Amino acid sequence: xxxxxxxxxxxxxxxxxxxxxxxxxxxxxxxxxxxxxxxxxxxxxxxxxxxxxxxxxxxxxxxxxxxxxxx
Length: 71
Prior knowledge:
23% of the residues lie in helices and 46% in strands. The chain has one helix and four strands, in the order αββββ. The protein has one helix at 2-17; strands spanning 22-26, 35-45, 48-57, 61-67. The chain starts with a helix and ends with a strand. The mean pLDDT is 89.
């Protein structure tokens, strides 16, 4: 659990300071959901920064955008 907290803290700091470039998460613990990878990148929507996440499943991709205040 400590490693998770450190990861979250570093990610939040990078988003707040503008040093975030991209995020790649792979090798999920549970293979049953079919989720293979999650890719994140910083984008601008309506003049505000957002984190755009692409969730890559075995048969489809889903993209979701989150305002930095939501994260």
